[in-house]
Amino acid sequence: MEENQKQLVSDAVDHKGNPADRTKSGGWVAAALILGVEICERLSTFAIVVNLVTYLVGTMHLPSATASNALTNFGGTAFLLSLFGGIVADTFLTRYWTILIFALINTMGTLMLAISTALPNLRPPPCNPTDQSSQCVEANSLQMGVLNFALYLYTIGVGGVKSSVSGFGTDQFDRNDDKEKRQMGRFFDFFYLIINIGTLIAVTVLVYIQDNVGRPWGYGICSASMFLAALVFLSGTKKYRYKESPGSPVVQILQVLVAAIRKRNVDFPSDITQLYDDPSQEFRISHSNKLRCLDKASVITSKDSTGTCESLSITLNPWRLCSLTRVEEVKMLTGLLPIWATTIMFWTVYAQMVSFSVQQALTMERFIGNFEIPPASFNVFMIGGIMITIAIYDRLIMPLYKRTKIPQGLTHLQKIGIGLFFSIIAMAGAALSERKRLSVAKAQGNTSNPTLPVTGFLLLPQFILVGIGDAFIYAGQLDFFISESPRGMKAIGTGLFLTTIALGCFLSSILVEIVKKITARNGGHDWLPRRINDGRLDLFYALLAVLNVVNLVLFLFCAKRYKPNPGQVAPKTKSDEVNDDDVHHKEESV
C-alpha cells in the first residue's frame, strides 16, 4: 500500500481526475510532446517577424515607415497578448486547453497568411518599389485587411501558446521528488537550446524558402508543422499530469485596486493590527507605510463582517476585502516600475533590427560567393551575438568571478545597465553605417538597379551589438523582475518582462510617426519617406542613440535609489539539487 502511495503525485491528477501515477504520466515523454508545440510556435513567429517587412515593402508596396510600423505593431501585440493569454489560462481555461485551442488558432493564422500571399487578387500588381522611376500601386484596403486579419489571428494563437507551454511543461515534473526536481532543471536547459535552434532554422531555412521558393510555401510549412504539433500534443492527453491553476496574479492586483477604490471614503482603524490578514496564508508580509491608500482594501467594514466582536465572522469577497499581505505584495510591485520603465527603450532599438535594418539590407549586396543571403537572414548575426555572449559569460567571465569575493557574478541591475549601454553603441554604429549607405545611394543617383554597390556586411556591427545587449538585458530583466517580485506573485515577473518588449515595439511606431510629422513640417526633408534611399534614416538612428543615452542616465538614477524588496528569499549557493525557487525562476525565464 505504501509503495502504491509513493507512485502517486500529491498535487496532480490524470486526465480522468484521479491522482496521477508517476509511472504512467508526466516525465520526459509528456514534456517532449508539449515542447513540440513551442518549437513550432517559435519557428513560425521568427519566420514571419524577421521577413515581414520585405513583403510589405516589396510586394504590398507600402512606404518604408508604414511597413516598419505595421511590423512593430504586430510584434508588440503578440507579446502583449502573451500576458493576456496567461490570464485566460489561469482564470478561465486550464493550461492544457489553452495550448490546444490557441495552437489551432495559430495554425489558422499561418494558413490564412499562406492563402493571402498565394492569391494574386490579394496583392497589388508587381513592380520595383526601390526604383524611383517605377510607378507602384500600393495595396488597397481589402488586400491589407485580409493580410492584417491573418497576422492578428496568428498573434492571438501566439499569446495563448507562449503563455502556457513552459508552465504546463513544468507540471509534468514533481517538485517534491528529488529525481524529478533535477529533471525539471535539465528540462529548461534543453528547452532553451531547442527554441534557439528553432529560431536559427526560422531566420535561415524558412526565410530562404519564403524569398526563393515562395511565401505560400514558407507559411504553409509553418501552418502544417503547427497543426501536426497540435495533433501530437493531443495524442499525449492520457500521459499528462494536470494541476490546479493557482489563479492569475493580474486579477489579484486588480482586486486590491478595486477594493481600495470602493473603500476610499472608509476611515483607517486606530490600530493597524485590525487590518484583515488571511490566517491561512503560508507567507505573510509586515505592514509598510508607503501607499497607505491601498491599505483601505484591508479595512474590515460592516459589509465584510457579521456577528459580535467576540465571534466575528468575515465574509470574504476579494473584490471588497483583501488580505494585508496581498496589499503589501501590490505595494512591492510598484517599487519595480521605475526599473521597468527604463528598460522599454532597449526593445525599441531591438525592433529596428527586424524593420529598418532589414530594409537597409534589401538595398545592399549580400553575396557570399554565388549565394545571396536573404535580407531578413541578417538577423542570424544578432542571434549569433546572443549565443556567443552567453557562452563567453558562462565559460570565461563567471569562472573569473568565482575566484573573487563576488562568486554570483554580475547583478541583475548591472546586466540591464550593460544591455542599455550596448543599445547606445549599436544605434551610433547604425547611424554611421547608414550614412555610408546613403552616400553611395546619392552617388548612384536614380538608376534601375535596386541594389547599391555597397556590401550588406556593413550592417553586421549593429546586429551583433544589439545581440550582445540582448544577452545581458534579457537575463538581467528576468532575474530582476522574478527575484524582486513578491513571493506570492512571482509569475507577474514574466508579465512585466513581456510588457517591456511589447511597449518597446509600440514606442518604435510612435517615434516613427512623430519623426515623420516633425521632419516633414513646413516642407522640411522627411527623414522617413517612402523609399529609405531618399530619407535620413541615419538621423533617426542617431536620435535613438541620444534617447538611449538619456534613458541610461535615468536607469542609473533609478538603480542607485532602488532598494531590494523586503522579505525576499536569498538565493542559495550552487548545489547538486535544484531547489523550488530555482526551478520556478527557470520556468518563468523561458
Automatic annotation (TrEMBL):
InterPro entries linked: MFS_trans_sf, POT_fam
Keyword line: Membrane, Transmembrane, Transmembrane helix
Compositional bias segments (type: Basic and acidic residues): 12-23, 573-590
Example GO molecular function: transmembrane transporter activity
Gene Ontology CC terms, in alphabetical order: membrane
Stretch list, region Disordered: 1-23, 567-590
Secretion signal span: none
Main location: membrane
One Pfam family hit: PTR2
Gene3D superfamilies recorded: MFS general substrate transporter like domains (1.20.1250.20)
Protein localization: Membrane
Membrane topology category: Multi-pass membrane protein
PANTHER family: OLIGOPEPTIDE TRANSPORTER-RELATED
Protein name: Proton-dependent oligopeptide transporter family
Organism (species): Corchorus capsularis (Jute)
Lineage, highest ranks first: Eukaryota, Viridiplantae, Streptophyta, Embryophyta, Tracheophyta
